[in-house]
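INTERNAL AUDIT FORM
Audit reference: QA-55
Scope: verify that the stored structure record matches its stored sequence.
Auditor: D.O.
Record contents follow.
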Amino acid sequence: MTEPAIVILAALILDWLFGDPRWLPHPIIWIGRLITKLEKFWRRHISCELTAGVLLLISTVAITVISATVLLWAARLLHPVAGTLAAIWLAWNCLAARSLHAESRKVAYALENTDPDDARKQLAYIVARDTAELDEPEIWRATVETVAENSSDGVIAPLFYLMLGGPIAAIAYKAVNTLDSMVGYKNDRYLLFGRASARFDDLLNYLPARLTGWLMVLAAPLAGGSMQGAARTMLCDGRNHSSPNAGIPEAATAGAFGVQLGGSSRYFGKTVVKPVIGKPHQPLSKAVYQRSIRLMYSIQLLLTAIWLVCFYILALKR
């Protein structure tokens, strides 16, 4: 087994087993701190918010890539095994399937225990919308939407870039994705400053989002869903979203399980009217949430299997 396959499989297994242990150093946390410091720096020195936002994007990605490259180079200089272990650690920290499962499960657990206040509190950690006034069906909707959307940008996209360009490409993607989650808001503070990060994140997620959608179509039966429903809803309603990418996996999920996602939500105290995605053939519930989690793991396994087959076919032809 060659090193790229070892790195990817080991990273996947570590993520499935341990997620993001709080006692281990995490590069995404370091990237977040870097973004906070660079935002203050560029705002202080550049008056044009658009220009400052572009410089934030460039400097964050450049520092992240250089730091990761130096880390891998230094580890390989010590010993080839150390280099492989460093690559596995970096790749592991780019994957977030177990973390997405664990954080969303806190919301589900609170609803199971008839504690909607705690469910709203836990939901607020994983969504941008206001959660204080959500009733139970809306909480389930927000949770399933988050699992569906993050199945693309938190699960398939980093794995896609890991397969495409190794740990350096994956950590570069995570830097852009972290930028979008921190400054990519359409509010007064970040509308101009965060535009470059938000647009570049949209660009990097364009292919992974569509790959995620078709993987969901193929894997829908594995999660108790409909392949035909997933494909039909993705093609019909995949653009019913303000994001050019988020609607694709949300529509595939909605169609697979016969539920309706989308609709109006409140952000920063303002109601945002959005189109609906899918048809409400059945209510949103714990069962739908559990199936969406199963679908998330299924598409990750499916992509890994496809990549391994292609990787070894190409290796045999060399």
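Auditor finding: record pair retrieved intact. Residues 3-317 form one domain.
Action required: none
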